[in-house]
Amino acid sequence: MFDSTNSTDSAERSDRPIEEEYGSKSVADVQAAYAKYADWVDRFEWLDRLLTGRYRRRQFGDATGRVLDVACGTGTNFRYLPRSVDLVGIDVSPEMLTKAREQLDRLARDGTLHRMDAQALEFDDDSFDTVVSSLSTCTFPDPIAALREMERVCRPGGRILLVEHGRSDVAPVARYQEWRAASKYERAGCRATQEPLAVVARAGLSVVDASTARLGTITMIEAHPG
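^ that's the sequence the OP posted. Answer follows.
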């Protein structure tokens, strides 16, 4: 069972509402940012895979059943999911979904893609065996709502698997992140210094396992619904 001590510490360090800490952005703001950056994200996906691929493979490699990839972006997670799964991806950005469709074609794998707001998923309760998401809670205007939607659509006994980034636990790295945080949020809507476990705790998800990597900037979380 996951030791919640670190989660509690994170929550205490980051107990201000997200909107107070960073200001608020709308879904339209996020769409506009990713319309601008979709080509860039796709072009440098190789670098993303180099930096985070091992963690995505570790976290998503044993996903089963009907799988929902929330905020699938350009489809970076697709290659790390077993071919046996029934893959459904959603993203709010049509430009990102175009790149995700190209990714499915390149990988020669089946999948269904929908344009959809992660904060108001258009699926019935208990629709998926596994819900995955990566590097996404930092950009949701309301990450708590998005995480609760992931929980709602995940069947009892299913799993919610996350790979997130946030504030380093190494002081010099964290100070650099803090220095860059405001400009990164303004440019791309990314909360670079979020505390992933604190966000998940606020959403009320039941965390059963968590680990960190890359000086604490990457957090892998497994949570169960209910």
